[in-house]
Amino acid sequence: MTSPLTIAVGYDGSSESEMAIRWALYMAVATNAHVTVVHATGLLEHAHIRFSPDAAPDALLAIARECGFDADHLYWVVNDGDACSVLLRAEGPPIGADMLVVGSRGHGKRPGILLGSTSLEVAEHATVPVVVVPPNIRGSVPPDDEVR
Amino acid sequence: MSLIVNEPYDDSGHEDPGHPERPERSSVAMAAVTDLHLGSDLVIATARAATRAELIRVHSGNYLDELGAFCYGGGGDIDQDTYATLDSWSIAVLAAGGGLAVIEELQRRGDGVGFVVTRPPGHHALADRAMGFCLLNNVAIAAAGLLAQGERVLIVDWDVHHGNGTEQIFWDEPNVLYVSTHQWPLFPGSGSASEVGGRHAIGRNVNIPLPPGATGDVILRALKEIAAPTIKEFDPTWVLVSAGFDAHRADPMAEFQLTSGDFALAASWVAEFVPHPGRLSLFLEGGYDLDALRSSICATLSSLLGRNQDSEDPSSGGPGMDGLVQIQDARKAAIDMLQRADKEDDQ
Fold it and tell me: What is the pLDDT of residues A58-85, one digit of tens each?
């Protein structure tokens, strides 16, 4: 028996990253995968100047329940760094992600701006498959018959 | 001895209200220079912008184009930490040019110490990406200019954060030795002791990650025991310092416990490796508590210029001393592994 796949998904507190988490969870339900939600702690967050996701684990559990995902297979990891580097590091141990999932644009980003695009950087440098979840995905989840 | 400082430029347009990387930082840095009362020993290097040819030694053309277009389009948040405004491009190229101008003045004189007041800071900026408040890698642009003249450049980075951009840019460059002391874990998450350089530059990257709470005695001993032998072997012809002052105990961005007196000692230690007069320049990186920034710059420059200036007592007793052996071991193991792999490839 092969071990379950691990999907790592980036979370920065934005609605786009929440959409990415929902997509990852539905995919994980369909493929019996584990999900690790990865949050990058930047300079400002470390100094408590900007967004801090203290409440995120509880909110994520609620989303997992909505998606029908077993919360025992949901992991929450916070690492220092920029969003792109932290998500790319999820490919290696201890997470060992088989797939990276990221929202198409992060917190406060303007549409169409490539500079600082986490999704673009991750897609360019990753060595595992990357899914970029757009903000306007239909129904916010992949239809069952496409996933299974 | 003279202090060569870049001519102040108007950086007020690079500001995001509430952001700690703010225009007051450069005003305070210049006030620290004024505090030294140098008179005719203070030399101002005329401001100039870095040219595209100078920038492209370090940054990709695509990145430069995107950054310029982003700024001229009004700017905004680049990532969770980093912003740019309409004026940021022109300010960033003046920051990078300031470093080049100071080095040119040092070369003309063959004497003195350089201090480059740069906003935005630079050491997190990658070849193709802005991050960590940094847009252009000022110290790397200066080092690349010296490399083009055939120099061998030592970069000592005592900012509390690892200079991932500088490390990446010179990862495989045998004529640059990068030495960093930094808090770990902390942004940007890189900087482990096993990062020792690329196949063409094995051992040319010296990372000294230290725990939160580390004091000046730990950092100075780490530099002496871990970095000094490699620096002596490298035998630099120029010495640049990524002089961040956010390792000060009052700084809000991290948890090191340094005092202004510690920076003075670190500066004296660095000066030992300067091969000839006029071949040392400091570049402002971090430092966000304005009082600590001012007193630390003043103490650092006083030390280098051989002037008596009151500073805080050096700090001691923090954690990290016991871990220095592990840092040495991890570094040695990584170098051995790369050298073995290199030999096997040759066979």
Answer: 888 899 999 999 988 999 999 999 999 9
pLDDT in tens, A12-23: 888 889 999 999
Q: Is B62 helix (H, G, I), strand (E, B) or coil?
A: helix
| B89 inside 8 A of chain A by CB | no
Min Cα–Cα distance to chain B from A79, Å: 7
- Which residues does A68 contact at the CB level (< 8 Å), separation at least 6? A29
Nearest CA in chain B to A12: B80
The pTM score is 0.94
User: Does B66 sit within 8 Å of A118, measured CB to CB?
Assistant: no
Tell me which of B59, B80, B134, B136 to substitute to probe the interface with A (most A C-beta atoms closer than 10 Å). Answer: B80
Q: What is the CA radius of gyration of chain A?
A: 14
For residue B75, the chain A residues in CB contact (below 8 A) are: none
Which pLDDT belongs to residue A135?
A: 80
Query: Is there a domain that residue B279 lies in?
Result: yes
B77 touches chain A (CB under 8 A): yes
Q: Is residue B124 part of a domain?
A: no
- The complex scores an ipTM of 0.93
Domain at A6-147: CATH code: 3.40.50.620
Beta bridge partners of A36: A8, A75
Domain count of the fold of chain B:
1
Coil, strand or helix: which one is B339?
Answer: helix
